Amino acid sequence: MTRRNLFPQSLSSRLLLTYVTLIALGVGALIAWTGQRLGEQSVQQAEHELELQSQIIANALRDPLERRPSSPTTGERSLDTLVASYAKSIGGRITLLDVQQNVILSSDPRVPLQTVDNHAEFAAARAGTPQFDIRWDEWAKEERLFVAAPISAEHVQPLGFVQVSISMAPIYAEIQQTWLSLIGIAGVVVLITVIVSGLLARQIAIPVQNLTTTSEQIAAWRLDERVTPAGPSETRRLGVAFNRMADQVQGMIAQQRAFVDNAAHELRSPLTSLRLRLEMLQTHGQNDAELTRRYLGQMEHEIGYLQRLIDHLLALAAVEEGVDAPRVPLDLSRLLRELTEQMNVVAAQAGVHLQSEVPEHLPRIQANPEQMSMLVRNLLDNAIKYTRKEGTATLTARAANGGVEIRVTDTGMGIPPDALPHIFDRFYRADRARSLQQGGAGLGLSLVRAIAEAHGGRVEVQSRVNEGSTFTVSLPA
Ligand code: ADP
Asked: What CATH number belongs to 226-323?
């Protein structure tokens, strides 16, 4: 059973959802706070204004009220019109009460006269503190804001009270309008966020998608595929790095294929030659002792070549994998002298003088003795192979930069300048005929370079045609 994940899977949807949620929460909180504050302010402002008005009206009504007991009817009528006109000007209701809080008259005919009104605003008016009250008004059947003020000369017992009230409906309508505007603004902000973050998320997601598609294509062996670096600087850099890596992988695979092709090719010629000679021996071998001897000699040469080829291939693989090659602190001087002795036999057979100038001691370097022998033997072998009779091959070694420098010089045939850049490539032979005749597979110098590099060193060559060559190997401490 698969569990359904409600969180979206794609990068762009996740980014979009995150941005929009955060912005919506932020904007929502801000708008709730602002709306609340604005609503409170509207009510407070209305209360404040009403309070001022109630005081002004209380002052204005003091004289008419004082005169009232002397001529109650005329007084009553002039008060009536006064109250009605004030009520009209503030757009609310004004009610007059005597000192016992009995309603004397009201601008609103629905308010019953001669009833006692005991609401909170009167107690405050008596105490001289401002107080308002919002409550349901049973005469107007609506919510109203009430304020009361005492009608009195200063420091004298009040003559009565004036109660001023307005309907809350316009205030509530204004608050509602504010809320609607705020919600509208929030909607626009969220909409803009959705659009902008959608574009941003796509900017990141599209290059990532392209990278994924291209990786899948390369994994399906379409090695020529590359991405077009796009989007923000990070994904562009990723694209460039990805392409570079793909180039390297493609190059390595091409090299590997070429190597296998070359190796197969190198193996096939001696094997074909061996088979042909075997067939000839089977048909003619019994009768012709001279032919048999010659063919067996040639077959031995081919087998020797195959042996060297395979030894070199295995050695190269081992050096490149870096396995089974323990390093020890090594003074190369003894190893070099022993090698010179061994190679003297080969040099003598070829009629080449082999000289060596190796000091008693050399700085110790961390090296694998077998690989070091292989390196020097290959260089000496080449120097002897590619030098004519009576020529000289010289091995010198010295301390250099804390490490060791080994140099093999010959007075041989030299290497043409156009071949020089390739001689360290696998299976490359500058002089193919001579190399084959000498049983070379074109791997010796690749092995020399691989060993030098595996030891953190490098190998250089200088050569002049018909004058000779010098190979210099530098090995660090
Ligand atoms: P090979 O098995 O053919 O000797 P190497 O990798 O050892 O292969 O050398 C590559 C090629 O470089 C040789 O085929 C040869 O043409 C050239 N070469 C190497 N060493 C020398 C040298 N000392 N003098 C002249 N040519 C050389």
From this structure: 1.10.287.130
pLDDT classification of 1: cutoffs 50, 70, 90: very low
**Residue carrying the six token digits 């050695």:** 315
d(C-alpha 192, C-alpha 277), whole Å:
85
Does 438 score more than 70 pLDDT?
Answer: yes
Pocket lining: 305 vs ligand 1, CB cutoff 6 Å = no
Q: Is the confidence at residue 71, as pLDDT, over 90? A: no
Numbered ranges of CATH 3.30.565.10 in the chain: 325-475
CA distance 188 to 184: 6
Helix segments in 68-135, DSSP class H: 72-90, 120-127
Look up the pTM and report it.
Answer: 0.61
Question: With a 6 A CB cut-off, is 413 part of the ligand 1 pocket?
Answer: yes
Residues 6+ apart with CB under 8 A from 357: 394, 395, 396, 397
Domain 11-174 falls in which CATH fold? Beta-Lactamase (3.30.450)
C-alpha count within 13 angstroms, C-beta hemisphere, residue 391: 22
Report how far residue 102's alpha carbon sits from residue 70's, in angstroms, rounded to the nearest whole number: 19
Are 448 and 436 a contacting pair, CB within 8 Å? no
Higher pLDDT, 385 or 72: 385
User: Band of the pLDDT at 477, cuts 50, 70, 90?
Assistant: confident
Beta-carbon count within 10 A of 391 CB: 19
Distance 444 CA to ligand 1 centre (A): 7
Can you tell me the distance from the alpha carbon of 147 to that of 160, in angstroms, rounded to the nearest whole number?
14
Residues of the chain with CATH 1.10.287.130: 226-323
- Average per-residue pLDDT for the chain: 90
In whole angstroms, give the CA distance from residue 87 to residue 164.
8
| Nearest alpha carbon, ligand 1 atom 25 | 414
Residue-wise DSSP of 157-200: --SEEEEEEEESHHHHHHHHHHHHHHHHHHHHHHHHHHHHHHHH
Encoded amino acid at 183, one letter = I
Which residue spans of the chain are classified as CATH 3.30.450.20? 11-174
Beta bridge mates, 248: none
**382 close to ligand 1 (CB < 6 Angstrom):** yes
CATH number for 325-475: choose from 3.30.565.10, 3.20.20.140, 3.40.50.300, 3.90.550.10: 3.30.565.10
Q: What percent of the chain has pLDDT over 90?
A: 69
Asked if the model's pLDDT at residue 3 lies above 60, the reply is no
